[in-house]
Amino acid sequence: MTTDSFFDVVVIGAGPVGLACAIEVQRRGFTACVIDKGALVNSIIGYPTNMEFFSTPELLEIGGHPFPTSHYKPLREDGLDYYRRVAFAENLQLRLYERVLGLEGEPGRYEVVTEKGRIACRFVIVATGFYDVPNYLRVPGEDLPHVSHYYKEPYPHTGQQVVVVGAKNSSAKAALQLLRAGADVTMVVRGPEISESVKYWIRPDLVNRIKEGRIKALFNTTIRRITPETVEVQTPDGPQTLPATYVYALTGYHPDFEFLAALGITCQTDAAQTPTHDADTLETNRPGVYLAGTVCGGLNTSRWFIENGRYHAQVIAARLAGEAAPELPQVLQPVQLTR
């Protein structure tokens, strides 16, 4: 397999943070390529159809490009249109639907190995997010065709019995949408209540629907087994069997640690399995290889997001250009996690 191109910087991950990184390094005179195994902003494509961002538009902007929208909080479609326009306006070099297999070479002379060839480069920025790898339940039947870890929309489930596993933002919004589309919804929650981290405009709605009995909820309950027509659970009062035509296991996601290992990036032994990197420079244990965005937090996937992760682009680009560390907004500081 021969090397088919050279760039100063290869950015792995074509999400908002990866695009921001490519923009910032290009503006400092570096050539850059953005590569992704999926589509442009692939994670946003995978979001629920009518998803509303939790942030206002100015907090989602990259590269100084205004985010025009008539919504106080942009919709998924707004985000897809915005990031596509920015990528084209900045003339970013995109290699989409091309999977990265590994990273070979030495600092300053790396080769990114893909399923289609090799890309020579001086530096690598990994901005792969966390949405590709679900937190699996690891129970029998999880691989059945009516079980999904990704929710799109409620309409196929009108009149159906749906089990939603989880109690954070994704599962809360899914349960409410399913209810209002005419589904019979049961939530299975490992903890004692709906998570306090659920957004303040969503949680009261869900809690009240549960109190009314319009949504059934089993707390302190775990999944034992999923069959084609039922979900077997363990409750504080003993085992129960729930009828289910569809199951949404919305228990979160995490970075692809196997992929990081394939790049030669190690992880710490802390509970979050934090990928090894310098907190100030974002450089990993491999010199010239950097992390940006959510992947920096390991299992702490609420630590970095578009709103603060986009500033990683400025930190990395300044370091590559030999510039002083930029003055950054307070939003760059990681948020306190709510467990």
TrEMBL record:
It comes from the Bacteria. The keyword Glycoprotein does not apply. Keywords: Oxidoreductase. GO terms for molecular function: thioredoxin-disulfide reductase (NADPH) activity. Its EC number is 1.8.1.9. The keyword Ligase does not apply. It is an enzyme of class 1 (oxidoreductase). This is Thioredoxin reductase (NADPH).
